[in-house]
Automatic annotation (TrEMBL):
PANTHER family: SHIKIMATE KINASE, SHIKIMATE KINASE 1, CHLOROPLASTIC. Binds 1 Mg(2+) ion per subunit. It comes from Amphibacillus marinus. Mg(2+) binds at T15. GO terms for biological process: amino acid biosynthetic process; aromatic amino acid family biosynthetic process; chorismate biosynthetic process. SUPFAM superfamilies: P-loop containing nucleoside triphosphate hydrolases. The gene is aroK. This is Shikimate kinase. Its main location: cytoplasm. Catalyzes the specific phosphorylation of the 3-hydroxyl group of shikimic acid using ATP as a cosubstrate. Its EC number is 2.7.1.71. One of its GO terms (cellular component) is cytosol. Substrate binds at D33, R57, G78, R132. The lineage of its organism: Bacteria, Bacillati, Bacillota, Bacilli, Bacillales.
Amino acid sequence: MKTFYIIGFMGSGKTTIGMALARTLSIDFVDTDELIKIKTGKDIKDIFASEGEQAFREYERDVLLHTPARHCIVATGGGIVERMDNRQWLADKRVVYLQASWESIAQRLKEDQSRPIWADQTRDKQALLESRLSKYLEIASYTINTEQLSPQKIVDQIISFSSFNYE
Ligand SMILES: Nc1ncnc2c1ncn2[C@@H]1O[C@H](COP(=O)(O)OP(=O)(O)OP(=O)(O)O)[C@@H](O)[C@H]1O
Ligand SMILES: O=C(O)C1=C[C@@H](O)[C@@H](O)[C@H](O)C1
Ligand SMILES: [Mg+2]
């Protein structure tokens, strides 16, 4: 089975659904945000604060390129589509886009302080979501509107869409 990449904005459920999907299929799960934490020994917030977003994007690019080509579910960071070279690299992969409205995302992340861009009062997150929409759609093999769906239903949809024929 070729590796599946899960993309979408912060709070769209990439980590939650990716973990559940991998567990259901009994295959490995990796999360690019976690790989960056392991690689640097730092929290994402610390990387943004001490090295800046561009340095974070370089780490993100590097870990993305080293993800296994087969038998794995990869949850990406919400900003993975910011770089054109990442979009080009993902374009011929199996990519599931988890879509969620601004209202749902804001509701899901209302207490969250761990995501530096989300916590940054100077950033317009709604405009960021709008600017990324076309980038997610550009590389998605399959798009799921997650609005009214539980994580388990989303996992079921991904499995039925892909049929996981292990080629
Ligand atoms: N389908 C869903 N319905 C309701 N809540 C959800 C759903 N999917 C995820 N959530 C909740 O939204 C929050 C964010 O989910 P998660 O961490 O999986 O997002 P993410 O896409 O990985 O975000 P990031 O890009 O920042 O890593 C969690 O509290 C999770 O339980
Ligand atoms: O949307 C983004 O740019 C981000 C999403 C998170 O997954 C992390 O990768 C980081 O907080 C940046
Ligand atoms: Mg995540």
